Amino acid sequence: MTEPPVTPPPAPRFKLLWDYRGADGPGTAEHFHIHLREFLARAGLAGESGVEAASAQHGIAWFIAPIHVAEQVLKALRPHRAERLDP
Q: Which burial class, exposed, middle or buried, applies to 74 when counting CB atoms under 10 A from its CB (0-12, 13-18, 19+)?
């Protein structure tokens, strides 16, 4: 009897966040997001990214990817915060 192949668990994903505060915070987060996407394209890295306005005075650019991708972005772009999304 043959045992079914064992699939490894998926790599944990992390959300990297860059916070921008003040009257220009949301606009600065939008601008940083443009450069983030350019960096990801040049480096050949894939993941989800976006921008959210936490308030009129706080913009957040974010990137979500598996740990092996997030580590590369972490070293190069030094996010302000990181959150583990998967257990």
A: middle
Which residues, including other chains, have CB under 8 Å from residue 57's CB and lie 6 or more apart? Answer: 21, 22, 23, 25
Model pTM? 0.88
Element (H, E) at 60: strand 58-66
Q: Is the pLDDT of residue 1 over 90?
A: no
Q: Count structural domains, the chain.
A: 1
Which residue, chain included where needed, has tokens 């668990």? Answer: 9
- Give residue 30's domain range: 17-84
Query: Is residue 9 a part of any domain in this protein?
Result: no
